[in-house]
């Protein structure tokens, strides 16, 4: 039997929350983010090899449930992810996600993974990777507006990839900012809690907006932001949800992951399709310039794209292939592939305790 076919029949590796925690801690979170960003850059560089589409989204008043598929012809990945901002009011996660990585040639799954932690890691790695191309030289200060679940990951990614040393926090709930400051203690970052957005962004070379409310909001208006900064706008991710003033977008050079999806879900949904944007893969491949001068205002209108999940799942799969992992008996393994009914007739070895 071919080694890969034999591998497929051994069961599907599962990376649950505990396994992901152990994996990240073993590698080291900053090393993990740097290596993941390298994987992302490699995949964005081969953009044309991917079969791409906007994600499927099922919207409701309380949130959204999405499926995010993509394939490069060898591997296929798909993530299930939700976004329900009010979940935190009842003690639940805003985002609950999991994903599958599959072999295209056979259709068999080769990895199942949690995607709450991994989504936060890949989002942070993507943000910092884009900023490597667009942030001002010698960036040292990051403003984080909205201090929810993504914040610590963003701060550490910018530290690891850009050398950021100072983080300024603002959230309408000061407890959220206090949470971030506590979690980043010992990280080597200087972390300050600010009382206003203006205080947080004053002197910052990079501004990250990451708010969760499902509404058209103006976290940053044009008159608040000086020329020469880079804005990492990652909170707008569904129709009817924005963070940036339209006038601010019009002042800037705007960069996106996959334009057809960002037109639906990003901050640029406020503008008509004549407004020009640049897809990030064009920077990686040298097709378009990034920051052209220190006075330029740049914005990354990031909504999260399936390629980023694909890169993250393949990176994790490479890491766990070197070690034993929990495997799920997810696919039937009868001797005759055509005789599925025989699986029901097989004797069970399970003993029932009385």
Strand order of the largest sheet: 9-8-7-10-12-16-14-15
The gyration radius over C-alpha positions equals: 22 Å
Derived from helix and strand composition plus strand pairing, the structural class reads alpha/beta
Euclidean distance between termini CA atoms: 42 Å
Query: Helix coverage percent of residues?
Result: 25-40%
CATH class call of the largest domain: Alpha Beta
* CATH topology annotation of the largest domain: Rossmann fold
Domain count: the total is: 2
DSSP, total strands? 17
- In CATH, what is the homologous superfamily of the largest domain? NAD(P)-binding Rossmann-like Domain
Relative strand content: 15-25%
- Average pLDDT taken over every residue: 91
**Secondary-structure element series:** HEHHEEEEEHEHEHEHEEEEHEHEHEHEH
Overall, the morphology is globular
CATH architecture label of the largest domain? 3-Layer(aba) Sandwich
Number of helices: 12
Can you tell me the residue ranges where pLDDT is under 50 for at least 5 consecutive residues?
349-354
Main β-sheet, in a few words?
Answer: 8 strands, parallel
Organism: Pseudoalteromonas byunsanensis
InterPro entries: NAD(P)-bd_dom_sf, ODC_Mu_crystall, ODC_N
Protein name: Ornithine cyclodeaminase
Pfam families: OCD_Mu_crystall (PF02423)
Note the main attributes of this structure.
single chain; 354 residues; alpha/beta; ornithine cyclodeaminase, domain 1; Rossmann fold; 2 domains; 8-stranded parallel sheet; 7-stranded mixed sheet; 17 strands; 33% helix; globular
Description:
With 354 residues, the chain is α/β, with parallel strands linked by helices. The protein folds into 2 domains: 3-117 and 308-326, 2-Layer Sandwich (ornithine cyclodeaminase, domain 1), CATH 3.30.1780; 123-304, NAD(P)-binding Rossmann-like Domain (Rossmann fold), CATH 3.40.50. The chain is built from 12 helices and 17 strands. The strands form 3 sheets. It has an 8-stranded parallel sheet. A 7-stranded mixed sheet has the order 2-3-4-5-6-1-17. Strands 11-13 form a two-stranded parallel ribbon. It is globular. The two termini are 42 Å apart. Mean pLDDT is 91; it is low at 349-354. It comes from Pseudoalteromonas byunsanensis. This is Ornithine cyclodeaminase.
């Amino acid at each position: 039997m071919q080694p890969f076919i034999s591998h497929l029949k051994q069961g599907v590796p599962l990376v649950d929350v505990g396994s992901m925690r152990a994996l990240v801690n073993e590698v080291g979170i900053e090393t993990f983010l740097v290596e993941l960003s390298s994987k992302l850059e490699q995949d964005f560089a081969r953009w044309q090899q991917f079969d791409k589409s906007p994600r499927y989204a099922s919207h409701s008043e309380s949130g959204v449930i999405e499926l995010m598929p993509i394939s490069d012809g060898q591997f296929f990945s798909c993530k299930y992810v939700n976004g329900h901002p009010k979940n935190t009011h009842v003690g639940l996660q805003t985002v609950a996600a999991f994903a599958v990585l599959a072999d295209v040639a056979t259709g068999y799954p080769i990895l199942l993974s949690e995607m709450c932690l991994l989504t936060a890691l890949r989002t942070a790695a993507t943000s910092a990777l884009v900023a490597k191309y667009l942030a001002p030289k010698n960036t040292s200060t990051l403003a984080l507006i909205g201090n929810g679940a993504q914040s610590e990951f963003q701060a550490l990614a910018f530290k690891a990839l850009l050398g950021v040393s100072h983080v300024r926090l603002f959230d309408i709930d000061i407890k959220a900012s206090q949470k971030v400051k506590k979690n980043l203690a010992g990280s080597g970052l200087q972390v300050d809690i600010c009382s206003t957005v203006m205080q947080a962004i004053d002197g910052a070379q990079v501004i990250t907006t990451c708010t969760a409310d499902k509404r058209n909001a103006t976290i940053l208006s044009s008159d608040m932001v000086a020329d020469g900064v880079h804005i990492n706008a990652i909170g707008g991710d569904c129709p009817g949800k924005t963070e940036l003033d339209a006038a601010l977008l019009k002042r800037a050079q705007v960069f996106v992951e996959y334009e057809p999806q960002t037109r639906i879900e990003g901050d640029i949904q406020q503008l008509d399709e004549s407004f020009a944007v640049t897809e990030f893969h064009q920077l990686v491949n040298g097709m378009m310039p990034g920051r052209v001068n220190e006075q330029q205002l740049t914005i990354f209108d990031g909504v999260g794209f399936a390629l980023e999940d694909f890169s993250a799942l393949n990176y994790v799969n490479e890491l766990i292939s070197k070690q034993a992992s929990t495997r799920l008996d997810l696919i039937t393994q009868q001797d005759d592939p055509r005789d599925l009914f025989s699986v029901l007739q097989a004797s069970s070895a399970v003993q029932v305790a009385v």
